[in-house]
Design a protein that fits this description.
alpha/beta, four-stranded mixed β-sheet, binds 2'-deoxycytidine-5'-monophosphate
Length: 669
Amino acid sequence: MQKIDFLDLAVMRGASGTVHLPGSKSISNRVLLLAGLSSGTTVIHDLLASDDTAVMLDALRALGCGIQADGKLVRVTGLAGQLHTKQADLFLGNAGTAMRPLTAALALLAATQQGNFSLRGVPRMHERPIADLVDALRGLGCQIDYLGEPGFPPLQLRASPQPLNTAAPLRVRGDVSSQFLTALLLALPLVSEPADVVIDVQGELISKPYVDITLNLLARFGIQVQCEGWQRFVIPRGSHYQSPGDVHVEGDASSASYFIALGAIAANDKPVRIEGVGAASIQGDIQFVAAARAMGANVVEGPNWLEVKRGRWPLTAITLNCNHIPDAAMTLAVMALYAERTTTLTDIASWRVKETDRIAAMAAELRKLGATVVEGPDFISVTPPSPTAWKAAAIQTYDDHRVAMCFSLAAFNALAGATPPVPVRILDPQCVTKTFPDYFAALFSVAKTDAADIPVLTVDGPSASGKGTLASQIAQKLGWHFLDSGAVYRATAWMAMQAKVDAADELGLAQLASGLPLTFANGGIQLDGTEVREQLRREDVGALASKISALGLVRSALLELQLSFRRAPGLVADGRDMGTVIFPDAKLKIFLTASAATRARRRHKQLIDNGFSANIDRLCADLEARDARDQNRSVAPLKPAQDAVLLDNSALSVEASMDVVLKLWADRF
Ligand code: DC
């Protein structure tokens, strides 16, 4: 996958339509671990496909679990509590939901079954505290070494010389992260054979809803934990993990928060419908609905769906203790940009030890947009900018998926009255793959953008100047759509050849051109669903395309089709008249040239590489003739737009040309 350095979000002005949520991260990784420890095979439906679940699946595979991925199903055959592999070095990325429970489970298995495991992650993972969990496990007699900084991963888990001591209650702190308690609850049934295992929570337990998910899923796998006032948990003697057979993972309630907020901000007319979670959810973040309602959202709930529209507008500022919805609360901090006065979120100290220091990150990035922010050790207050104080901002995302997702909502600032509305740039947008790989596609599918606001970058130039290659690679690098307008003319020519329409029959050709059933998908070009990329590259097709492209009626018949490619987040279009006729308001226009001899050499190589025979002198003569025809025709002649940047790439590699264009674009933000 091409790495995208930044994604520019044009000004967005409304939203409606349906999104399907990916599976819940918290449920997915808990279910995977439980299935991995169980007897029997678990068939998991709608498992989240993301970075965090990928590392968990890799770990289970390395430990000897049977893993079969079959479309939307994943089958896991568990270890039934017995180690198959005694030694493994596991890489867990930045997935707290993998690191904590695997530390607990493997520490117990290593101790009791002579195992030896190391667990590591990305540098940020090595800054996320784990001492409270390690201390609790050491209290039982587990052998755990810090391989780097004491108190943080990476860790080494070894065999224990003595039997573990499960008689006394285990103590674990509950006020830093509930993931330590969850890790112990998921793992301790492994050693519950001789007697009840008791966990005492020290301090006030935070994020209780996440512990509730853990208890709920343990019960599905046959383990009934007794919970006494959120302070004491008892795992009954003789507990065994037993696969329930099929498990359905619900949509991610934290991911839902972005679309709930979107509905509250931008669904003025028809609602945003969210499928995958609803009133029956076992996830704590579903309580975000109440917070969004308090700010003004109009939410209708079904068992596994939500429909959200604007209620009160502007939104109402709130002061809210967010202990129960730590992840989704980040979305409230961005909704605060659309509220009157100051929104304060309290009891969020856990933000400081997440994927990044989220309080510092949210404060810094909200300020870039013009908001006034006050932050403390465990709270954040956000006052929106006045309409004239909004600033275009490049949002740093700190390798934190939630920062990227929640700040995309700032692109609706026109609705807050921002004068002028400002674009928002999300840096390193692919960090969303941690939990929601298709987040931006889902956002664009429901967001409404005026065509005039969608940025277009045009690359025009003569045949074989390399504009197609350059333009398609720039589109990938920017995460934008791509229009190869030459293919539009070639496809019309190909249709004319098939239908035996004469090259001089302007009306007949224009009829073919209007409603051309052309699509670009999976790197190919389809006419009426049939792949025609190869056919369109033929020289005779190109020659006919050049002829018919001089016909005014054909050109106007193809106008609508070309304009329809202008979709969020942006379009890179290559051709002859992209910057002059089709997209005269393009934000950046490149006119790419190379000498006829250089272009003939390139075309020659391309043809030979593809198994065609070719003569370089004839190619050069053909190119010159085609240039002359394209330049001298009366309609839309090939010429640089007045505001185009001329780029002669005779001596440049594609990469070097890309660098020039991307720098020009980055500087125009
Ligand atoms: O770029 P290409 O070789 O695929 O283009 C095929 C023909 O279509 C070319 O001879 C000129 C014509 N064309 C055009 O007139 N306007 C465009 N925007 C793109 C191509």
